[in-house]
Structures are given as structure tokens and as C-alpha cells.
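Moderator note: this is an archived Q&A kept for reference. The question asked for a predicted structure of one protein chain; the sequence and the answer are reproduced below.
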Amino acid sequence: MVVKLDIKAEKLGVSDDILKKLGENSSKAQADALNRTLAGMRTDATRLIVRQSGLKRPEVFKAFTLIKASGRSSSPYAVVKIVGAPVPRFRYGARPTGPMTGKTRGGVSFRVDAARVKFRHAFVAKMQSGHIGVFERSNETFMAKNKNRPAIDEQFGPSIPQLAGREEVENPVMENAGLRFRKRFDQQVNRFLKSKGVK
């Protein structure tokens, strides 16, 4: 799954008058402010997702790709690209934290929307490949040594793009993006005006 957040100066409250006054310096000022904003968006989104999901920060952070704005473009824009597949439930702060040996009763709890939820029929197991996950017995059966035994399915939670697209993450990230862009852009404008002798 891929999510893209495009950000442009027009969407972040920059008037045409200011852009005209900057002239050829407009694109450079916009690109600089957009790229600072881009990095801040990744930081904000990562922090919120980690807080709500229990996922590890490096795993969330690496799902974000920043496509920076170019100061050579007449209409600079930047993109935050978020890529990821459904995440194994085990990585959502599963308890117990290791494979369950012997009888697998008692269930497994993990984070769901900042709350801890228990799946009573789930268990933590380590596969022959070394992969550790949260599993549940499914209703389907398969033949094993002439006996019908329940099959098991690994449990997955939402992908990082899905988490990033939720209102409680996207809204504050975009709100902060506007504030961050405006602050940086104003600094660039003031620097330009000062260089021209305008107080």
C-alpha cells in the first residue's frame, strides 16, 4: 500500500502577492520551506504512529520517503511517500513477548488503536524459518498424519500507510506542516528583504 501527501505553497497559505515580490527568489524560498516542512512531517507522523501503535520507531520511520522540492521549478512541490504492507501483530507490542511453549492457552494481547486488546485463542509461535508471530487456529482443516488438525493463520494489523492516513495522525501532521512551512518561509522572505535593504 502506498500513500502520498503532496504539499504546495498555495495550499499552505502563501499569497500570490508575496510570491510576486520575491520574483526569481520565490522558487528557492518555497523549496527550502517545503523541504524543511517535509522532514518535520515525517518526524511528527512517526512519533504519533509509534505512540498509538506500539511499533518500533525505526520500522515506522523507514516507511517514509521524502521527495524534495526543487528550487529550479516554477511551482515547487514536495511529496511524502509512505509505503508498507500489513504489519504482523507480533510487532504491535505483543504479550507474551516470546514463543509460548507447551499448552498455548491464555491468549495474546497487543496494541490496537492505543488500547491493549486480548485475543484469547491466539498464541505466539516460532516458525522453522525463525520468524516469530501471533497465530490463531482457523476453521479450515488440513490432513496431517491421517488426522484432521486445525490450520493456523498468522495475524496481521494495519500497514503503516493505513496508520498514517487516520484522522488522528494526518490532521495534526498537516496542521503542523502549515505552521512549520509558514515560519520557515517567513524567515526566507525576511532574509531576502533584508538583503535588499528593506526593514
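Archived answer notes: The longest helix spans residues 167-195.
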